[in-house]
Specification:
Length: about 280
């Protein structure tokens, strides 16, 4: 498992995910690795390749159900997907294959995700929008479609959720950890040799400066701007008050225009799609 990569993402990568999810990832990685983030001797760099899951399942009525489940990321390793990650690299092929499949009339993205990292998400939004021009794409969750998952769901022609499902969390954050005091207490001092004022910003062991924070803030603001713009492109009018990182359930999500309607379950949505033909 790529512990250094995961720890680096937690420390300095902009996230569009529920904070509780990122905390859980951090705890899981530290439990499986040493404090330095290196794998234990009994753990390899990557695990065995899991058996590939189908890109979609077709209902008897010709509706392709495409799963979007797990913590969203881009170019994930097999170990990361085995540990609950959803690789965006699987979405575009699923959309393309289902669009070309003569058995398929509509598609449903079956979402169960707290969000994830931001890389690849604007492109995934655009891919769903393009594919919806070929065949309809619906979104559905009976659990959660938060942050980056809400971003993708906003591209769908219609987004249906169940009463207790949680959506929203439109926001971006980057958690910087200043470990310099802890290093000094343990007798370590980082001697950083670099070129470029912003190079190595946020590196473990170095104090976090105001310039470092400002640089990360610019990136977070830029991604948030793309996030909000895409949500409004896909959903229409959404008040600023509903785009501050909070989550909504059921009817409240519909009232905030982050979802279209509340359904009983996936079967209910599939039946409605057939009835509307």
């Amino acid at each position: 498992m790529r512990f250094p990569r995961i720890l680096a993402a937690i420390r300095s990568t902009p996230w569009a995910a529920l904070p509780s999810t990122v905390h859980a990832i951090h705890a899981a990685v530290l439990a499986a690795a040493g404090r330095d983030g290196l794998p234990r001797a009994d753990m390899g760099e990557d695990g065995p390749m899991p058996e590939a899951a189908p890109l979609y399942v077709i209902s008897p009525d010709g509706i392709a159900v495409i799963p979007v489940r797990g913590i969203i990321g881009k170019h994930l390793s097999s170990m990361e997907t085995m540990c609950g990650g959803y690789d965006l690299d699987t979405l575009a092929p699923a959309l393309a294959a289902s669009a070309a499949d003569p058995r398929v009339r509509e598609r449903v993205l079956f979402i169960d995700s707290p969000g994830g990292t931001c890389t690849g998400v604007p492109e995934a939004f655009a891919a769903v929008r393009r594919s919806a021009d070929i065949k309809p794409v619906f979104g559905f969750t009976d659990s959660q479609a938060c942050s980056a998952a809400q971003w993708i769901a906003s591209a769908c022609d219609r987004f249906a959720i169940t009463t207790s499902a949680t959506v929203g969390s439109v926001g971006v954050y980057c958690a910087l950890v200043d470990e310099s005091a802890a290093w000094a207490k343990d007798g370590y001092r980082l001697e950083l040799v670099k070129a470029g004022t912003q190079k190595a910003a946020g590196i473990a062991g170095a104090p976090i400066t105001a310039d470092d924070v400002a640089g990360f803030q610019r990136n977070v603001d830029a991604i948030y701007g793309m996030f909000v713009a895409d949500v409004r492109t896909g959903r229409g009018v959404v008040d600023d008050a509903a785009l501050q990182g909070q989550t909504f359930m059921g009817a409240d999500a519909v009232a905030a225009n982050l979802a279209d309607d509340v359904v009983t379950d996936l079967s209910d949505l599939l039946a409605q799609i057939v009835d509307a033909r």
